[in-house]
Design brief:
three-stranded antiparallel beta sheet, 1 helix, four-stranded antiparallel beta sheet, 15 strands
Length: 241
């Protein structure tokens, strides 16, 4: 209870305790046993999203003599939603489609930096707050998710020679709420000006650069944030927190 000495009124805080029904995935969604329970496996890590290659020589050094009998399983590091559902969660390790060649195997792996594209075509990235790498398991067996050869497109006559590149800087150091997965990086309290150099290799002349920054302020007074690029004031879309 709370006693208000000014109005001489007595207030009561009433807490209601009720049972909440817990739910789980249907039993049919769980694997009978772990894929790693039998056989020979090698664990590999990836730090970037993209197509990865494992040579035949590397596979042989791990004890896999025939690349055609190698399977790749794992989630990578895209981040699993907090709310699990049959649509977003696969029990055990899902098999990854591979391209098998005499030289080795190719497979698409997801690293710890998921990328999103907004309606205006702007590309942004963020780090997985739980891991700095994505992990996959290399095993031996009969692949069921080989990349099909049917339906592949013809080679374009006018090949693209440019693409939009993402250059990303993020350091997760501080959680102002001391909870959750929202982290921020460099502290500007004692170092008011910081330089973040970016290398845009093979940048095309006379093309624009879009800059996106997320900043946070925890102060009793008004704070300001500004950004310059190559010594000139930059027009920046800020995401204040």
């Amino acid at each position: 209870m709370i006693w208000n000495t000014v109005n001489r009124q007595l207030y009561f805080l009433i807490f209601l305790i009720t049972a909440v029904v817990a739910s789980a995935l249907d039993l049919s969604g769980y694997a009978a046993s772990s894929r790693l329970a039998s056989g020979k496996w090698r664990k590999v890590s990836v730090s970037e999203t993209g197509v990865h290659f494992i040579s035949k020589a590397q596979l042989k050094s791990w004890g896999f003599n025939d690349p055609a009998n190698v399977i790749v399983s794992g989630y990578g590091a895209p981040g699993i939603p907090d709310l699990l559902s049959a649509a977003t969660y696969i029990d055990d390790l899902p098999e990854v489609q591979c391209e098998y060649t005499p030289e080795g195997i190719y497979f698409y792996a997801v690293g710890p930096q998921p990328v999103t594209i907004d309606d205006e075509g702007h590309i942004t990235g963020s780090l997985n707050p739980y891991t700095a790498k994505g992990y996959y398991y290399i095993g031996e067996g009969s692949p069921v998710r080989e990349i099909p050869t049917e339906g592949r497109g013809e080679v374009a006559q006018d090949a693209l020679t440019t693409y939009t590149a993402l250059v990303h800087h993020e350091v997760d150091k501080v959680s102002y709420g001391y909870t959750g997965t929202r982290f921020f990086g460099e502290d500007f309290r004692f170092t008011a000006v910081r330089d973040f150099p970016f290398a845009l290799k093979d940048a095309v002349d006379d093309t624009g650069v879009w800059v996106y920054a997320t900043v946070a302020s925890h102060s009793a007074s008004r704070t300001n944030f500004s950004m310059t690029a190559n010594g000139e004031s930059a027009s920046v879309l800020l995401n204040p927190t």
